[in-house]
Amino acid sequence: MTSLLEVRGLRASYGAVQALHGLDFSLDEGGVTTLLGANGAGKTTTLRALCAMIRTSGDILFEGRPIAGRSTEDVVRLGIAHVPQGRGTFARFSVEENLELGATTRRDKNGIRDDMDRMFATFPILEKRRTQQAGTLSGGEQQMLAVARALMLRPRLMLLDEPSFGLAPLVVRELFETLARVNREQKVSMLIVEQNADLALDLADQAYLIETGRIVLSGPSAALRQDEGVRKAYLGY
Amino acid sequence: MDLLLQQILAGLASGAIYACMALAVVMIYQAIDHLNFAQGEMAMFSTFIAWQLMQWGAPYWVAFGLTLAISFVGGVAIERVVFKPLKDAPVLSHVVVFIALFAILNSVAGFLWDFSVKPFPSPFGSGPFLGSRLIGAHQAGMIGATLVILAFLYVFFRFTRIGLAMRAAAANPESARLVGVRVGWMIALGWGMASAIGAIAGMLIAPVVFLEPNMMLSILLYGFAGAVLGGLNSPAGAVLGGFAVGVVENLAGTYIPVIGGELKLPIALFLIVGVLVVKPNGLFGRVSVQRV
Fold first, then answer.
1. Considering only CB atoms, which chain B residues are within 8 Å of A115?
2. Which InterPro entries match (chain B) (predicted)?
3. Which of A72, A75, B138, B225 is most buried as measured by Cβ atoms within 10 A of its Cβ?
4. Do B177 and A73 touch (CB under 8 A)?
């Protein structure tokens, strides 16, 4: 597989506090990669850095082209959809409007219509809530909406920040099944940040372990699962 | 009874001006979360541009259209040049710049066109409206124009993609960026539209109060009162608030002897303070709730 995204020496800081100390990693085209780590390790910061939501240094190559230094809006136009922590839903807007916003960068009106129908087929609950304000949806429904909104971009790469956060176990399973299906059927590559390591390792084929702003371990998910350190610290057995 | 009806109608007529200003105020407030104290002066300046164009021989509607375009571009330019670099600055910096803009526009208008009072034509004529003694044609036209602008804004924000993007940029800039909305340009567009709406307000009001650099001073205050009364994030509320302020002001001036014509202006202040104390989000404004 060729690499879709390649990151070299990524550094980022919040004021005087350095959060990322030179990260190196790459994502396979069509694959699912997970970034594991404890609270404050720099997982969210990494995703924010990829989307130019914070100031960074280092190289970020998307399909071989450097994209560091571009604005968030332009990174999105490359086909990188970020589902932020807290889902980034427009709470006062209807479900339909949220999906329309996901397609902001697109000009193909018919394609947008078709995709919207496809989303309603993939996430039937969203069709039922079509005209409802997004803020009135349950947590799981909002997460579905956030994923659907991101897919409306027709992304090459999806960045998901703690998609399981605050959801009931059953809802989480449904969500991850959907993600796996989307990855398989629509060939969308994914980078998933998760505290629920067990779940993330199931879905992902590649994994990186990040500790205080540094990658300390990487490899196929299955291999990381076997690692004693990972097992003790993140899987709990 | 006839007097009451006449006063209410006259109140609605001046209310239409306030409603127009309030709309412009709300437009900016939606985009940047601040009140633009220079809004009135921007409107005044636009009106002078229209006047100048007519002095040069342009027919009314040509001048009107050109002024709208110039004001729109001017509003966008002000945002790009002055406010974009300040976007992360604290609110006080913005207030200072608003006041600076206010003073600059006021003085430059005085310098270019002097402070003498100038007549300004009305597109609706000055006769009575449909033969009625109660309301003049210009007043009726003003009310109509305000409602047309409101309808236009409603359609624009409700049914166009760019309107949706503008709303998204205002509601949640970070998420808007993540779906690819160019938030900075949306704000600039908001400034342009507010400036153009202000220009319409200025051109409609100038036939009534006559054109001079200070013509907007008190009107902006009434516009603020209307916007606050209706709710700073509700265009329809702002329009209704503007009309209400006009009616209240007029009735109080007529029926409360101590107020008369002289003390009308404090009514606007009284309304602003009253609304802020009793119902801080205005009659139609949303209470902004935030989960923490």
1. none
2. ABC_transp_permease, BCAA_transport_permease
3. B225
4. yes
* Residue among A151, A149, A154, A156 nearest A28 (CA): A156
The reply to whether residue A97 touches residue B183, judged by beta carbons under 8 angstroms, is no
**Got the DSSP string for A46-102?**
HHHHHTTSS-EEEEEEETTEE-TT--HHHHHHTTEEEE-TTTT--TTSBHHHHHHHH
The CATH number fitting domain B2-278, selected from 3.30.1890, 3.40.50, 1.10.3470, 2.60.40:
1.10.3470
Contact A88 B181 (CB under 8 A): no
Record: contact B181-A51, CB cut-off 8 A: no
Residue A114 lies in a domain: no
Inter-chain contact B178–A76, Cβ cutoff 8 Å? yes
| A118 domain residue, yes or no | no
User: What is the spatial distance between Cα A229 and Cα A122, in angstroms, rounded to a whole number?
Assistant: 38
Within a domain: A95:
no
B77/A contact by beta carbon, under 8 A: no
**B81 secondary structure, DSSP code:** I
Answer yes or no: pTM beyond 0.90. Answer: no
**C-alpha dihedral over B51, B56, B61, B65, to 10 degrees?**
-80
> Would the CB atoms of A101 and B179 count as touching at under 8 Å?
yes
Mutation for A interface: B84, B159, B160, B179, most A CBs within 10 A: B179
Q: What is the residue range of A63's domain?
A: 3-89+155-235
Of A51, A97, A100, the CB nearest to B178: A51
Q: What is the ipTM of this complex?
A: 0.89
Tell me if A182 sits within 8 A of A125, measured CB to CB: no
Residue of A nearest to B163 (CA): A101
Answer yes or no: is A101 within a domain. no
Beta bridge partners of A59: A8
- pLDDT tens figures, B121-169: 988 877 777 666 667 888 888 889 989 998 998 899 889 999 999 989 9
Does B167 sit within 8 Å of A77, measured CB to CB? no
| d(C-alpha B154, C-alpha B238), whole Å | 13
Convert the pLDDT of each residue in B30-62 to its tens digit: 877 788 889 999 999 999 999 999 999 999 999
* C-beta of residue B69 within 8 angstroms of C-beta of residue B18: no
Q: Which chain A residues contact residue B181 at CB under 8 A?
A: 73, 101, 104
